[in-house]
Design goal:
Elements (H helix, E strand, L loop, with lengths): L3 H15 L4 H5 L39 H4 L7 E5 L5 H10 L4 E6 L2 H14 L4 E5 L12 E7 L8 H11 E15 L4 H4 L2 H5 L6 E2 H10 L2 E11 L4 H4 L5 H9 L3 E11 L15 H4 L8
Parallel strand pairs: 1-2, 1-4, 2-3, 4-5, 5-6
Antiparallel strand pairs: 5-8, 7-8
Length: 294
């Protein structure tokens, strides 16, 4: 895992396998990778079952949040789901856009694209499409998208700065994103950082929370806010595959934390569709007057 190419190939390989695993395996492990825990069920993902538009066959239990719940998608919007997997978030987004909207899922795992297209065909959805592509170089035209969502994907890829720049490129002026991802506070033990399973499991590829938020700022976004944050607790029976007793105790008693965050941010530019008041935020706290949203 010395290069970005090695890491991406690892993700492709692991997620090709994960695409065909039972959901209970994915829910009881770290994003479907490595050993399953017998101590804790549903380690990372939130429950989609109550969301309108949820398609059971598309829910592989691989997320770490509910970005579509926070994305303020409106009827007629064009929505892009980054790392769309079997189509879970894309289908929830489709419900929000209605028949006049469009949803595009992008993924670079062939097995996931096949699974998502099969699910869309079974449901008879004609305004959802799934494109094979790398989200560091998205197969999406400039300035054509109203909303971007993603669920526990950016942490898997090394060039997170490129991805945020790509999101900036494809969004319309005033468009926005809501992304759930894994971030860190403090340094992971070396054994976890160096593990291929933990990388594919959405943990070892995570970066510091402050660095993550800075990348969003550097990409030129405004109105940046954390919509939800929760700790991720990895069960001992998974950690003991990587840490001995002393290292495990040090990790659990230390200051390092693994968190799921759902982040909102907006592309600058006047838009009649997206106003700070519509988004439910305190304008004085998060609205940049130069963005034209206030």
């Amino acid at each position: 895992m010395d290069t970005a190419t090695d890491l991406k190939n690892l993700v492709k390989e692991k997620y090709s396998q994960i695409a065909n695993q039972e959901i209970k395996v994915n829910l009881s492990s770290c994003c479907g990778a490595g050993e399953s825990s017998k101590e804790v069920y549903n380690i990372m993902t939130d429950d989609y079952s109550e969301l309108e538009g949820h398609v059971k066959d598309a829910d592989l239990g691989l997320g770490c949040g509910l970005p579509t719940q926070f994305a303020k998608i409106k009827a007629g919007d064009t929505v892009v789901d980054l790392g769309s997997g079997a189509g879970n978030d894309a289908f929830v987004a489709r419900h929000e856009t209605g028949p006049t909207g469009k949803v595009i899922g992008v993924d670079f795992v062939t097995e996931m694209i096949k699974k998502a297209r099969t699910n869309a065909d079974k449901m008879g959805f004609n305004n959802v499409e799934f494109r094979y592509g790398d989200i560091e170089e998205m197969p999406i035209s400039d300035g054509t998208v109203d909303v971007v969502v993603s669920n526990c994907v950016l942490n898997l890829l090394p060039a997170k700065d490129k991805i945020f720049n790509e999101i900036q490129r494809i969004l319309k002026p005033g468009g926005h994103f809501s992304i759930s991802d894994i971030v860190l506070k403090g340094e992971l033990p070396d054994a976890l950082q160096q593990s291929a399973e933990m990388y594919a499991g959405c943990v070892a590829g995570a970066i510091q929370k402050d660095d993550y938020m800075n990348l969003i700022t550097e990409a030129g976004f405004t109105n940046i806010t954390i919509q939800k944050e929760k700790p991720i607790i990895i069960p001992d029976d998974i950690l003991t595959n990587y840490l001995d007793g002393e290292a495990l105790a040090s990790f659990k008693n230390g200051t390092t934390g693994i968190f799921s965050i759902t982040v909102f941010a907006q592309k600058k530019g006047k838009s009649s569709t997206y106003k700070a008041i519509d988004l439910g935020f305190d304008q004085g706290a998060v609205c940049d007057p130069n963005s034209g949203c206030c």
